[in-house]
Amino acid sequence: MHYINFESKYDRFPTTKISGFQAYRGYDSIYEELCSKCGANTVLVFDYYPGVDEKEVMQLIDRFDANIKIATYDIFKESAQINEQLKYHITEDRVFGKMYYGDFIDLIDEEKLSKAQEQVQNTSGLRIVYGVAASLVAKGDVLVYFDMARWEIQMRFRKGMPNYKMDNADEDNLRKFKRGYFIEWRLADKHKARLFDQFDYVVDTNKSNDPKMISGEAFTTSLKALAQKPFRTMPYFDPGVWGGQWMKEVCHLDCDQDNFAWSFDGVPEENSILFDYNGVVVELPCMDLVLYQPKELLGEQIYARFGAEFPIRFDFLDTMDGQNLSLQVHPVTEYIKKNFGMNYTQDESYYILDAQENACVYLGLQEGIDKKQMIDDLRAAQKGEIIFDAEKYINKWPAKKHDHFLIPAGTCHCSGSGAMVLEISATPYIFTFKLWDWERLGLDGLPRPVHVEHGKEVIQWYRTTQWVKDNLVNATYEVQEEGNDCRIEHTGLHALEFIETRRYTTDKVTVHDTKGTVNMLNLVDGKEAIIESPDHSFEPFVVHYAETFILPACIGAYTIRPYGMSENEEIKFIKAYVR
């Protein structure tokens, strides 16, 4: 089956070329470069993001004839002590923890740290300190940071990698991911961000036994350059129990896979960015850009409001020839703050990028339902005593291409089968309270987590049929913008949500201005478009159908027009920004 009538040019590996720097590929090349920087009395520090394979890196470390080699693994507290210290944040839940805002030093044995620091100071010759948070022992004469993207860490969790300093290789992957999300990655990002301008080198460790190293200057220069131009993150794709077939065709994925359920294409917390140094492609976490260039990327206003966090998220949910998503609800702000330590919540929307006949979206409650009976039925369904009658309680709306369904937190919802959803939302993405999962097991063979007790605390019971129809289903109206002679529509989001979305339909040039805040867009119809700078401050940037792209706040004015298409052929793109 073909879902589109043209050849997709969707680019899975969007890469930015950087001139004037070289990348060192492989441990042989890295060793030679580092040796050239080490004198007779040098402290060489290898600092890691948790998840980096230390056994692999040891093939580099073991080549050095150092007088001492200090592993930071040995100065961290023992796992039982760490678990006891963090038990409030780890929780017993499979999915949800509580956000930890501390530092690595909280988990380190300070007496052992002090001895390690003294050992470095009191020893001459070549000294090596290596491991997570190694720069707490010594900044060193040469500081090398080994980086890794969160998605790769998750893939390694699935293959049996434990959390840092933990003996939990066989633990439920959801629990390992939870520990990363709520604790490890928060500590590591905070630690890393303090060191950006001190790095002598940065190593991409995302591919096993294929490291690529760049200088600290190349690292900071590349991030500064990316913050001044349109760019895309590298998307990733994952199968799921409800997954569909659309992304296989449009995004050029493995046809032998049963399905692909979802994709993150435009989630800087999770996605990577790719830089090409004379043919060597280096992958870095996009969070490095957010943390290093927050004002340039986000804008002063968003930075003041959210800090160094990218507040908008675009992702794909594919149920084309697939199944319904789980029936779910997201926590309201007060609940997510009190229970999980997050400052804002997972408000979202479903933009229907494509749809089959009979596609639908479940959204909001039926009029006049019995609240207690609904919760009792959900509990009974969770125990396997009944099959939950979703349509007795939840509205089922027909969905067609380019519909936009708004989903402020607290609204019961899910996409039905036969839809290709571009989800436009606030960035928090783990906080889904599943209410009913249609009697399914996960791909791991375990029941998928259901959180009826959380859900019942946040459901907004007044969001019934008429209210949903008036406020959340295609709440679209035309707007005028100076300088643009085309159809422009406000499509969302709801007044309770902080994101504005506008859809442009045009066969000519449209003019835009970031007005000091980051813009995130997707080409929702048409083969290609080109983004250009009126004053040539950045090179023309071509995007293809279904690609998400980011315009940093500091860009200011830009234009978008159809590209590589027949005359008078239209494009549609949707733009999101913080109100």
Automatic annotation (TrEMBL):
<dbReference type="InterPro" id="IPR014710">
    <property type="entry name" value="RmlC-like_jellyroll"/>
</dbReference>
<dbReference type="InterPro" id="IPR051804">
    <property type="entry name" value="Carb_Metab_Reg_Kinase/Isom"/>
</dbReference>
<keyword id="KW-0862">Zinc</keyword>
<keyword id="KW-0413">Isomerase</keyword>
<dbReference type="GO" id="GO:0016853">
    <property type="term" value="F:isomerase activity"/>
</dbReference>
<keyword id="KW-0479">Metal-binding</keyword>
<protein>
    <submittedName>
        <fullName>Mannose-6-phosphate isomerase class I</fullName>
    </submittedName>
</protein>
<dbReference type="GO" id="GO:0046872">
    <property type="term" value="F:metal ion binding"/>
</dbReference>
<dbReference type="InterPro" id="IPR011051">
    <property type="entry name" value="RmlC_Cupin_sf"/>
</dbReference>
